[in-house]
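Hey, I'm writing a tutorial for new members on how sequence and structure tokens pair up, and I'd like a real worked example in the thread rather than a made-up one. If someone can provide the structure for the chain below, I'll link this post from the tutorial.
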Amino acid sequence: MSSVTATSLADTLLLSVPKLNASGLNWAVFSLRFQDAIEAKGYWGHFDGTSKCPAVPKPEDLPTTTAVAGETTAAPTPTTPSAEDLAAAANQWDKDERSAKLLLTQKIPDSALMHIRDKKTVKE
């Protein structure tokens, strides 16, 4: 029995996506297969805008512990993400955004690529 990894399955799915013709004649098949493959890779939220980049707080916005009348304010609870956790999540989101953009640019004609090259996000 052979072992199929999630990565090889996702790569195989992406290979099944035809490149979009410059004329757009294969749009219906392209769009269905592309969305299926991108959903399988977990990046569809970057295309439809449901995956938002986590906001990284500025240092001055972070909670601090201060003494008030002999009491110290509580540190953030374990359910409150730390600045480091938020920064790591934002970095992962940026990496996923670049991966999603790469997958798109591999499957569209060069003429379309030239129109979208300056967009900041995949959703744009």
